[in-house]
Design a protein that fits this description.
single chain; 188 residues; alpha+beta; 60s Ribosomal Protein L30, Chain: A; four-stranded mixed sheet; 46% helix
């Protein structure tokens, strides 16, 4: 009798399981959300308009060139110099703070510009360790720029660890160049 009861309970639960999933999947969204895009309007991708002759405009390539030109202009004006670190360290040096002060001043005079703060390491250490160290380096630079008045919404960080060396060498001179944070303009 006990075995029959367990078998019957098991069979009924197996038979009712699909109905449970069907009822959960058929729920309709609240009235205010019907037909709404899950992304904000400014992030929804739209097809660029087709020019005469059926050609797509080269907006992305032109924008990349404009960002690169703006980056070069900023570097000529003394902003966006790389920030260098000692081995296995993510605290800022005093000379790095001077470099970032110039970057903050430039960003203040260009309030629509957003940047990517790229953390880099030398080749010593594991890939996981170097990614984490690059992330901490980027975060320390972001924190310092924030303390100088730059809005966090204008700064993103990414760690490349050892993957994008500035110098491909395998000695102390090359490693010193690779332990850095590099800035890239992402929006003008």
């Amino acid at each position: 009798m006990k075995r029959t009861y367990h078998f019957l309970t098991y069979t009924i639960s197996i038979l009712l399981l699909p109905f449970f999933f069907i009822s959960c999947a058929s729920k309709t969204p609240p009235p205010g959300e019907r037909g709404a895009s899950p992304l904000p309007a400014e992030t929804v991708m739209k097809e660029p308009p087709v020019q005469e002759g059926g050609e797509q405009p080269q907006v992305a390539e032109e924008e990349l060139v404009a960002l690169q030109n703006l980056q070069e202009k900023a570097v000529r004006e003394g902003a966006f110099g790389d920030v260098y670190f000692d081995f296995n360290v993510y605290t800022l040096k005093e000379e790095s703070k001077a470099t970032m002060t110039k970057t903050a001043e430039w960003l203040t005079t260009h309030p629509t510009v957003s940047i990517m703060i790229e953390g880099h390491c030398d080749e010593r250490g594991t890939q996981e360790y170097n990614l984490a160290l690059g992330e901490r380096r980027g975060a320390s630079v972001q924190k310092y720029l924030y303390s100088l008045g730059i809005d966090l919404a204008r700064m993103q960080t990414i760690s490349y660890g050892e993957e994008r060396p500035a110098d491909p060498g395998h000695d102390e001179e090359a490693w010193a160049k690779n332990r850095r944070v590099h800035f890239t303009i992402t929006k003008r």
